[in-house]
Records
---
Amino acid sequence: MSWRNRVLALSVIVLLLFSLSTPVLAQEGDQQQNSEPLTIFTQYPAQEAAVGESVTFNLTLRGGASPQVVRLDLQNLPEGWTATFRGGGKVVRAAYVNPESTTSVDLRIELPKDVKADTYRFTVIAKGERERAEIPIELIVKEKLPPSLEFEIELPTLRGTTDTTFRYSATLRNRGDEDLSVNLLAEAPPDFQVLFKLTGQEVTSIPVPANGSKRLDIEAKAFVPVPVGTYPIKVTAQGGEAQAELALIAEVVGKSELSLTTPDGRLSGEAYAGEETSLKLVLRNNGTAPARNVELSASQPAGWSVEFDPKEVAEVPAGQQVEVTAKLRPSEKAIAGDYMVTLRARPEGGASQSAEFRITVRTSTLWGIVGVGLIAVAVLVVGLAVMRFGRR
Amino acid sequence: MARSKVREGSPWTGLWAVVFKEMADHLTSARMLILQALTLITAVGTVYAAASNLRDTVAQDRFLLLRLFTTAQQPLPAFVGFLAFLVPLIAIALAFDAVNGEFNQHTMARLLAQPIYRDALLFGKFLAGLFTLALVLTTIWLLIVGMGLVGLGVPPGGEEVARSLWFLVLTVFYGGVWLALALVFSITFRQPATAALASIAVWLFFTVFWGIIVDLLAQFLRPVRIGLPSEYLAQGQLALMLSRLSPNTLYSEAILAMLNPAVRSLGFVLPIQLDGAILGAPLPLDQSLALIWPHFTGLVAVTILLFALGYTLFQRQEIRA
C-alpha cells in the first residue's frame, strides 16, 4: 500500500505540477507581450543644418501596453524655433499607436534666420495613457556661406588706338553656396560702348552656379574717335545681395592717319609723253598723333619715272598737312590715253596710304605741225603752178 | 617768151560761175541720182539695222551716235564699210569726164571764149565736184543723225557730234583724192571711157591688189630668217608703212580712230607700252585727232598735189584742137 500510495502521491504531484505549471507558463507569456514599453525613435537623431533651412526627422512610435493615443511634445526647444509634427500629410499633435504595428510621424523644425551656429539639443516626448517615451535629438546648426561674387582678371589695363576694340578677359566667381543670376553693368566714359560676351554671345545677365565660375569677355570700343587719354571702365556684377566690381582701364594712344590727295582733291592729271610734269600732292594727317618720316613712293608704268620732292617728309603734325611735289615723266614711247599711277606714303611704323592717279598722256603736237607743213607745201606747189602756167 | 608776157587780171575771175553751173549739172544728172539713191539706201538700211541692234544690246554708252556708223548687223556690214568703196565711186563718177567731156562736146573753145581763165575753169570743176560730194555726204550725215535721234531717243553729246563731223570732213577729203585722180585722167585721156576705166583700175589696184603686194614686198624686204620677235615686228611695221600709201588704208584707219574713241594707237603697240594703261578709256578728241593727223594731212595733201598735177597738165595742153 505504501508503494502504491507513494506512486499515486507522486503521480498526483506530477499532475499537480503539470496543472500548476501550465497557468504559470501562460501567465508568463501574457506578461511578455504586454510588457514592451512605448518607444519612440528615429534613425538619425543627430543632424546638421544650415542657418535658415528646415530639418525633418522621421520618428517612429512603437509598443505600449495597449493601443492608445500618444501625445507628442517637445522639450527644451530653443526659443523662436518652430516645430511641427506631421503625419499623413497633415500637422498632427498626437498619434494613435497600436502595439502591434509602428506609427510614423515627421518632426519638421524650421530654424529662424538669426539662429547662431551651435549644437542644440532638445527632446521629443511621447506621452501615452500610462506610459511615456523620450528621444533626445541633437541638431548642429552651421553658419551658411553668404553669397559672394568675385572678379578675377589678369590684364585690367589695355592699350590701343581709338579704333581698337579693347578685349578684357575676366572670370566671375561665385563663392557662395547659392546659384546666382548675375546682372552685368558697365560704367564707361561717353563715346565708349561696352559689351559683355559669354562664349561669343552678347549677354547682360548670366547664371553663375554655386562655387562655380564663368569666363567673361568684356569688349570696349570707342564709336567715335576719342582724344588720347586714359579711360576708366567700371564693371559691376550684381546677383542677389552679392556684388563684385572690376576696374578696367582703356589707354588710348594717338595714331597718325595719313591721306594722300591733291589740293583740289582731283586724282587725275595730264602729262605729255617724255616730258616732266609736276603734280602737287597734299599729305594730310587726320589722326591724333604726328606721322614721322613719311616715305613717298610710286608704282608707275614701265618706262615712266616718278620723283618726289622732298623724298621723305620728316613729320606731318596731327591735324595738319604738308605739300609734296611729284615729278612725273611718262615714257618717251607712251601712247596717248589714260594710265594708272599709284602713289604711296608710308609713315614710320604705320600702314602705307596710297592714292591712284589717272594720268592722261598726251602726245606732242609737233607732228601735227609737220602735217600742216605738208599741206602748206602742197598748196605752195599749186601756187607755183598757177604762177608758172596761170591765166592762159 | 611766154614768161615775158605780163598776165593781167585775177585767175579766179568767173570761178564761182563755173562752180555753180557745174554743181547744177551734177545734181541734175542721172548718174548722180543713181549713185545718190544707192548711198541713201545703204545709209538707211545700215543705220536702221545698227539702231535696232544698239537698242537691243547696248545699255550704256557715251558714244551711241558713233556706234550708229560702226555697228554692223549680219548680213549688213557697217555703214562706214559701205562708204569706203561708195565714196571713191561717186568721186570718180563726178570727175572722169570733167575735161574730156567738154572737148568731146566741142564746148571747150566756146567756154573759154568767155572771160574765164583756164585756171578758173579747172578750179571750178574741181571745187564743184568737191562741193557736190560734200553736199551729198552732209545730207546723208544729217539723215543718219536724225535717224539716230528717232531710233535711239538719245541726244548726242558735243564730243560725239564733233567726232562725227571730223568723220564727215575725212570722208570728203577721201573722196577728194579720187576726185582729183579722176580729174587728172580726164585731162590725160581724151576718151571719157578710158579715163573712167583708168580711175577704176587705180581704185581696184588699191582696194584689192595693194594688200597682196604689200605682204609680198614686206616678206621680201624684211624676211623672217630666225624667227625673232624683232624680225616679225620689223616686217609688220614695213607692211603697215607700205599699206598706208593707199588712201583706202589711210581713210579706214582715220575713221576707226575718229569713230572709236577707245583706239589709242594705230600702229604696233608693245606690251611694255600698255603697262599701267587703262584699257577702254576713251581718248579726248584732240588726242584722237593727233593720232589721225598724219592720215588727215596725208589725204588733204594728196588731194591738193593731184590737183596741182592735173592743173599743170591742163595748162600745158593744147586746147584749140
---
Amino acid sequence: MEKKVYAIPNVQTPSVPVRINPDKCVGCNTCVETCQIDVFIPNPVKGKPPILLHPEECWYCGCCATDCPTPGAMEFNWPLPLKPRWRTKATGEVHQLK
Amino acid sequence: MGTWHDYLNETGTPPEWPYPIKFGEETEMEADVLVLGGGIAGCWAAITAARHGAKVVLMEKGDVKRSGSGGPGCDHWCNVPGNPLSRMAPDDWAIQEMEALGDFSNGIGIQIQCREDFDTLLEMEQMGGKIRDTDDEFVGAEGRDDKTKFMVSPRYTRHAGYLAQPGWDQPGFNPPENRYNMTLRIWGSTFKPILKKECLKQGVKVLDRVMATSLLNEDGVQGKRVVGATGINARTGEFIIVKAKATVMATAGSGSLWMMDMEHGGYSSMFSRNESGDSSTMAFRAGAKLTMMEGSNPYRIATGLKHKWYTGGSDASYENVPLVDANNKVLPVPTQSWADGGAMFTYAGPMKDRVQEGIESGEFELPFYGDFAGMKKEESNATWNLMLNEESTTKIMVKTMTEGGFDPTKDQIMDYSFQELQPNENFRDAARGGGILVDWDLKSSLDGLYAAGTATFSPEDHSYAAATGRYAGRKAAAYAKGTGAGKVSREQIDQEKERVLAPTKRTGGIEWKELHNGLSRVMQYYVGAYRSEKLYDLALEEIKRIEENAVPQLYALDPHKLMRSLEDLSMIEHAKIIIQAMKERRLTSAKLGVKRLDYPNGDPEEEKNYLLLRQENGETKFERLPIRFWGNMKEQYEAHNQDYTGVWKPEN
C-alpha cells in the first residue's frame, strides 16, 4: 500500500532537542512534568513516549534528560548550529559533537 | 521518533490537546501568604513563610521541580561571608560589595545576602542539598578545605565584583593567605527538586503550570493594599483567584524583550525561557513603585545569536580556564582563576582592544580555545566535574560532550568570542537591574506586597535570590499574622478575566511569535546602542500602534499559546515602563548602559539618584531617591531583625 502523505506545515526549527529511544522509554512522563516550558505533551497512548509539541521553545536546560529515570531512553541533541567543537591539544585535531 | 508529525504519520490524526480545556472556569482559594513564581526566591519564600506558621500558596508558570533560571542548577554560592573560611565580616563585605557594584546597587538585598546566605546554605544542606565535597572527589583542588570539605572558589578572592585589580597579571598576585574566601562551589543541580519536596513537606499548596497575571488591590483600587492575585493555568486555561493577606512577588525579569527570534532567544539565553517581565508589570499595574527600570546592557553571554556557555562565545575563558590562541599562546586576559584573583575578562575596553589588535597584527591566531588540557589535573577536574556539572544549563553540556569524546585532561574547547565580536549592542538584557522598590522588610511601596530575588530592583545571583526569598517569606508571614484578609473586588477580577481570556475568543489574526518579534524589533531599532528623545518617542508611538492594531488580533488556540500570548502582553507593558523611565533619565551613563546622543555628558552628578516610577489613574508619576537611601546597612538590618533566630531548627 502506498504511504499516505499528509499536508504538514514546515517543521519547527530546531525540531528535535532530545532524541527519545522508543524501545527504552516507558512513557513515565517524568520529562513532561520536569520541563518548565512544556516542550512535551504526554502520548495519548499510555506507556508510549511523549510527543515533542513545542521543540522550538526549548532553552536547552537539559533537565528532562538529567532527570529521566530510564537509562538510554532520552539523549540530548544540540541543534546543528550549537554543536560544540573542541581540539585535542596533542594532535591539533578538531572534533565536533555528532 | 517523538515529533508531532511522527505521531500524525503513525496514527493518521493530530494529537488532541492532552489536558481538559477549562477556559472561563475559575477556582478560588485563600492563603495567608501567596508567593508568585516558584524559582529559587519563590521556593525559599514559600518554605520559610510556612515554617513561620503561614498557610502558603505558591503559583508557578512551569513546574516547581526544575523551573526558573536556577532550576537546572547552580555552581557558586556567591558573597557568603558568613562561611567559616571567610576572612571578612559580613557587614564589611556587604559594604565592599555594594561599593564594587557601583551607585545603583541594592544595599538592602546585599546586606541580607551577606548576613543570611550562609544560614540559607546550611538550611539547604539540612534538606539534603550537597554543599561540601563529602565524597572526597576533589581532594587536592585549590580552595578545598580538608576539614570542612567546603570548596572555595577563586571568584571574589581579592575583591568584591568581577573587575580585574591592579597587578592581576603579576606572579604572586593572589597568595592563599590573602584570599577572602568569599564564594563556595556547591552542587546546585541537587537543589531545586529538594526545594519542591520541602515546599510540599511544609504544607505549601503548589500550583504548578499557573502563570500569575495580576495583583488584586483592596476594593480594586490601584495603589491600595495588595490582597491577592489572579493566574491562568497554562495547560487547562482555568482562571485562578487567590485571596491572600500577604503576597511575595518572586517572578523573574524579561530576558527576551530584545530577542526577535524566539527560536534563537529560547535556546541561547542563560535565563529561563519563561521570563517575561511579569513581576514589574503586575506590580506597576497595582500601583507599586518600581526603580532602575532604565538600565539595560548588551547580553554579554548568550545573546540569542550565540552559543551557550562553555560550548562557545565567551565561555571557556569565563571561569578559570586559560584562553589560548590557535598556537597555544596564552592570551593576556584574566580568566577568573586563582592566579588573577577571580577577575573576569570583561570583553570591553582596553583588554578587548589589546586582543583584537593582536588578532589583526598576527600576534594571536584564531580560533581561540579554552585550554582545559593546560590546567592542573585537579583544577580541570574541579572545573569540569564540579563547576560546570552543577552550573545551570551546563550540566547537560558536560554530559553530552563527555559522551561525545571530550576529555578535559587532553582537550580544549573552541571559543568563538572573537569570531562573533560580541557584544551585539542590539541584543540587550531587559532592564535586569530594574524591579520593585523595597524597604528593609523587602516590602514594596504597597501594603501586603513583598518582593524577592530578581523581582527586586538591582538584584544579584542565586544565593541572593535564596536569601532574599527566605527573608521576604519570613517578613510576609509576620505581616499576615498581624492582619486580617483584605476585600477583593469582583469587578477587578472580572476585568482581568476578560483581558486574560480575550486571545482565546479569536481563531485567526496574529499569533504570539509574530507579536513578540514585532515588539523586539522596536526595542532593537529604537532602544539599542544609540538613544535620543526622538528614538524613544518613535518607540512609544510604534508600541501604541502595536497595541491598537496587533493586540486586538492576538489569538491563542490552546492554553499554552495563551500563556505565551499573555507573556507578550506583559512584555509590551514592560517595554513601555522601561522606555518611559529611560526617557525621564536625560543622561548618558556607562553604569546604566545608556548612550544618549542628545545628552552626551556621561554620568552627571545631578543624575546620581534612583528614578522611581508608579502608575496612578493611568498616569505615570516619577520621583527620585538619593543614592544609598537605605541608610547604614548594619544598623538598619539589626533594627529590623532583632527577632531573627538564624538557621531553622527542624525540631520546631
---
Amino acid sequence: MSTPETRQAETRQAEPRQAPASLLQQARSLLIRTMTFYRDDPRTAGWLRERLERLDHPLRIAVTGRVKSGKSTLINALVGQQLAPSDAEERTHVTTVYQYGPEPRITVHTPHGATQNVPVTALDISTIRNLQRWRPDEVSRLVIEAPFPGLQAITLLETPGVSSSAVTETGRSALAQILSEADGVIYLTRYPHQTDLRFLESMHELRITRRAPINTILAISRADEAGSGGGDSVPAADKTARRYRDDPRVRTFAQYVLPVAGLLGQGAAELTTDEVAALTELARLDSRQLEELLLSADRFANNTFPETVPTETRLRLLERLGRFGVERAVGLVSEGTRELKKLRSALLDESRLNELHEAVYQQFVERQEALRARSVLMAVDMVLRANPRSGAQQLNGEFEHLLSNSHEWDELRLLSALRSGQVRFDKQDRESAERLLGAHGNQRQSRLGCTSDASEATLADAASSALTHWRELAANPMHDRLHHEATRTVLRSCERLIARQVQS
Amino acid sequence: MIETALVELIDRAAAECAEQHRFDLGNRLRQIRGRVLDPAQLVLVVGESQQGKSELVNSVVNAPVCNAGEDITTVVPTIVRHSTEPSAQLVQQEPAQGPPALDRRPVPIERVHDEVEQAVADGLPLSRTEIGLPRAVLRDGLVLMDTPGVGSISSSLTATTQSVLTEADALLMVSDSTQELTTNELKFLKQVTDLCPNVALVQPKTDVTPRWREIVEVNRKHLVQAEISARIFPVSSKVRAQATSAKNPTLNTESGFPALLEYLRSEMANKHEQLARKLVSHNVSEVLDQLMTKLREELSNQSPRTATETLLELENAQHKADDLKRISGRWQKTLSDGIQELYSDIEYDFRERTWAILHQVDEVLSEADPDTTWDDFAEWLSSSLNDAVSETFGWLDQRRERLTEEVAEQLLPEHARALPSLAEIHPSDPLERVPEPKAPKAAGFPRKDQILTGLRGSYGGVLMFGLITSMAGLPLMNVVSISAGLLLGSKSLNEEKDSRLKRRQAEARNAAQRYIEHIVFQVNKDTRDTIRKLHQNLHQACNRLTEQGQIEISQSIQETKRAAEASAVDRDQRARDIKKKLEELTVLRKRAAMLTSNRIAA
C-alpha cells in the first residue's frame, strides 16, 4: 500500500496522458465563455474567475458532519500535522479552509467581503482556536495556508457541525453553499441519524447532482468510542457501516461508508520514540495490572504505579491516542511490534484511516477530473439561473449538452446504479463492469484488471476481449431498456480504452 | 392515604375531560391513574443510539439482560423488574381495538436476545420484553425500562419510545461523556420533560476519555440554559463491571454507580409518594390548563363571531331583496314589449296570408265561370283559409314559447325553473262562425231572351243592309241583308252572354272578399284574445314567483333577527356556564399545584 502522497504524484503525472479533450476541458471552456458573457457584471465575473482559478489549485474537499464528530481530528489526520484545534466542547463556528501555501498565513474574511491578514510567523493552534470562536456574523471564513505536504494535493474545508447552534444561526443554506464549493464531501457522523440522511439528501437535490451523484464519503467517526466504548467498538462500528452501505437511501449519494478512529490515526502519525518507550514500559506489566491500569482514562492518568512512565507522558498518550488507542498500542507492543515505524503503521491500520485515505484517493483524487467538471458545471448552472438574461440560451444549451452527453457521468451513474442494485448483472459481469467503469481506479491497467507493470500487448488483449464480451452482452435481446443502456455504457468505456491505447 | 386523594383528583379531572369531549386527555389521565395505583416505579432509560443505554441498565442490575454493543441493538423496550427467580417474557402488542389480548411468552433468560431477534424476524408485533431478576436494587419496586434509541435512521423506534414516556415515573437520559449534549438531544429532553418531569442525565463511558469532567460542566450549563432541572451522573460501566468482579468498593465508587443507585433508591424508590404527587400534579395541571385554554378561547371568540354572522346574514337578505326588485322590473318590461310585438306581428301575419288568398281568388274568378265552378271554389276557399288560420295560430304558439323563455331568462334561475309551462294555444275555428259566401245568383239566359236579343241584332242588320242594297234596286229583303242580319244577330247574342258572365264573376268576387274580410276580423279578435290571455297568465305566474321570493326573504330576515336575539340569550347562558366551569377548574388546578408543595388535604 503506497502512501497517498506518492499516489497523488502519480496521478498528476498520468493526467495529461489520459485526457484527450476531456470533460474537464470542455467544462473549463464553458466556464470561460460564461465569464466572458457576464464580463460587464463584475461580481458574477469575479466569482466565476475565482472558480476558474480554483481549477489550477488542489482539489477542494469539505469535511463536514455532526457536531463533535471529529472533523478537526480527521483533518489533522488527513494533513498528518496538528493544524485544526480539537476540543471537548463544540467550538467550530466558522468555516475554515486549510490550503497549501509556501508560508504559514492566516486570512480572515468578513461577511462584507473584506479580508484581513493575521500576522503570524508560525501556525499556532491557539490562535486558530481563538479565531474560530468568533461569531459567524463577524467572521465568514478563515483561510489557513500552511506548507505541509499533506495539503499539496487537496484543500480541506472545515464547516461548522450540522445541527449545531452555529448552523441554525447561519442557516442550512449557507452550509449547503459551502458544500457546493467543494469538489468532494466527507461527511462525519458518529452514528447516522435521520437528520444526517435528510441533510445529505437535500444536498443532492440539484439537477446536476442527480446526473453525477457520487461525491460523498460517509464516515462513521470516533469508531473507538462507539457502543459501550470497549475493545469491540471498532468492529461494532464496522457492522454499522456495512449495514448503511447496503441501505438504498445512503447508496444514492455515498458509495463509501467507513468507520474511522481519527484520533488514533492522528496520534499514530505523530508517535514519538519517547512514547514508544513509555508504551514498552507499560507492556512489561503483567496483564492483570495492566487491565486495572487501563480500566479508565482517569485511572491511567492519575496512577503513579509504573514510575518509569511520568504523568505528562501518560496524559499526552491519552490525548494523542485515546484510551482505546493506548490499549491497542500496548497490546501491539507486547505482541512484539516495537519499532516506531511498524507500530505507527499497525496503529494506522487499527484506526481505519488508511481505508479512508484509500477511499479519498479512489473517490476524489482519481476522479478529480469528473469532480472538478462537476463543480464547474454547478457554478455555471448557478450563475445562469441566478442571473438569467437574453443571449444566455446558447450557454444554457451547451451546459445541457455537456451535462447529458458526457460519458464520465454515465460511468459514474452506472457505477452507483450497480452498487445500489438498480442494475443487476451476474457476479462476474458485475465485477468486470465495475472494473471497466473505473471503480478500482481510473488507470487503464486497473480498468482492465491488469497489474500496473503489464505490457501494452497484454493491455490490448484484455481490452479487446472485454470489448468482445460486452458487445455480445449488448446484443442480448433479453435485457430491458435499463440494462441495455447499462451494457452500452460499459461497451463505450471499452471503446474509449481502446481509443486511448491507439493514441498512446 | 395520599393515593386516595390523588386518585380522586385524577378522577375529577378525568370527568371534566369527558365533559369537554377530550378523550385523548382522559386517556392520559387514566394511564397516570394506573401508574399511581401501581406500586412499581417505572424508570425509563432514554437517549440517542449508541450512547450506552442498554449497557447502563445491565450495569445497574449487574447482568447482561439487555443486548448491548453492536449497531442498533435495542428494537423493543426491555423492562427489568424484581422477581424471586430470574425470568424473561416476550409481550406482544395490544390490538388497537377489542379486549387486551396480551400474549406473554416465557422464554429462558439466557436465550432472551436470540428469542427477541427471532420474534422480530418472524414479524411478531412485540411490545416489550419483561425480565425479572432477584436484585436488591429492584426490591423496592424499581422497574427499569431500556428503550430503543431516539432519532436513529428509522423513525418507528422514536415513536415506540415516545409512547411509553407517559407511563414513566422518571427518566434517565443517557448521553455519553465523549460529547456534550447536542441541540437535538436538548430538544428531546425539553420535549420529554413536558410528559415526565422527573429527569436525570446519565453520562456513561467516563472511562473512555479523561475529559469527562469538562463535558459534565458543559452539559450542566446547557441544562441551565434550557431551563431543565436535572442532576448529572457520570458513570462507567466498564469500571463497575471490574469492581463487581474484583469485589472492590473503591473501584465501585469510582464507577459512579453508587451515586446513581442512591439517587434511584432515595429520589425514586422512597419518594414514590412525592413522585406520584409530582406526576399527578404535573399531568393534571397540564390537562386542566388545556381544558381551560379551550374554554377561554370559546368565551373570547363567542360574541363577536355570532354578531358578525347575523350582520352578514341580514346583509345577504337585503342583497337578495334588491336583486328581486331589479328583476321584477326587468321581466315586466320584457313581457309587455313581447306582447306588443306579438299583437302587431300576428295581425300582420294573418293579413299577409289572406291577401295571398285574395289574390288567388281574383285570378281564379277572372277566368272561371262562378256559375259552373262555385262549389269547387267555395271548398277551396274555405280550406285555404283554414290552413292560413291554423298556420297563424301555430306561429303564435311558437312565439308564446319564445316569449316565455325570454321572460324566464330575466328571472332568478331558481324561479325560472318554477315557472309553469302555459297551455298550448289551439287554433280557433272562425269559419264556423262566419256565414258561407253566397253564390252569385244564377241568372240563367232563357231561350226567348236569346231569340229576342238575336232578333234585335239581326233586325238592325237586315234593315241597315236592306236600305243600302235597295239603293241598288234590290228589294229590302235580299240575300245580303239577311246574311248580315244573321251575323249581327249572333254577335249581339254573344256580347250579351259575355256581359252577363262578367257580372256574375264580379258578384262572386265581391262575395269572396266580404267573406274573407269577415274571417280576418274574426281571427284578429281570436288572436288578440289569445295573446291577452297569454299576457295575463305569464304576468300572473311571474308575479307569483317574485312575490314568493319576497316573502321568503322577509321571512329569513325575521328569522335571522329572531335567532340573533335568541342566541344572545343562549350565549349569555353559555358564558355563565363557562365562567362557572372555569372557576371550578381553577380550584381543581390549585389543588393539583398544591400537591408538589406538600400541603394537600384529603
